[in-house]
Task: structure prediction
Amino acid sequence: MNLHEAFDQAAPPMSTDGLAAGVRRRRLARRRAAAGAGVASLAVIAVAFGASTIARGPSALPSTAATSDAVLERAATEDATAYEAPDLQAGFAPGTLVAGHLTLLQRDETSPVMLCHEVAASDPPQCRGPIVVGEIDWEALDAEARAGSGQRDAFAWVVGRFDNATGTLTLAVTPTLDRPAGAREPDAEQAVPGAAGQGDLVGAEGAVRERLDDSLVSAHADVAAGVLRVRAFAADTELVARIHEATDPYVARDHVEISSLLTPIGK
Result:
């Protein structure tokens, strides 16, 4: 029994929709509270080299913010209509700048931050996923603090570079509640449509589970549709090759649907 199955028995998994709803409520309350004090909060504006910087006080994260400005300014200058969904049958290049709307979870102050798609509906919520490396402003994310456990979690946008070999996302941008420029939600065009047909889908599912890290990749044999549905955090070319290497003995590639939770930021 892997860790995901243990969580499922302890408490049913839930999507991040519930966490997102809580974030939206808290976010609206913060904006209403901030509206009356907006003028006072912009107390210091420094202009240098033609760019304006708003002082945020002790909670500011200047090193990551500087990186964020560069990344998002570059993305904002690109034409969104020119964006083409990556061909996940082939995958995108390793080290590509990717973005996603997911849950950040830290069990306590000394534990690493995990990136989660499905969260067990336990108290406190639990999940298993890749490690996030970089600065996070939890207060800005309206993070939910879990009394008695020291755990905190937040539903947020992340931008960074994913390494499937180490199972880590290295942040290029401080996570935010607002969608960063160039970031997009995964959509149907970013998945490879499987064709109904024959093949050992159950065997292919088992091969993916056995050969790949189930905290980074999940597989489901949709026998009725004749499709093996594989979901990865980051479907780069190296990972896609490993998926096909595992499934080729069992099912044709046009029966394998690959989706990616993190997708390349706008081209």
Q: What stands out?
A: Residues 188-264 form one domain.
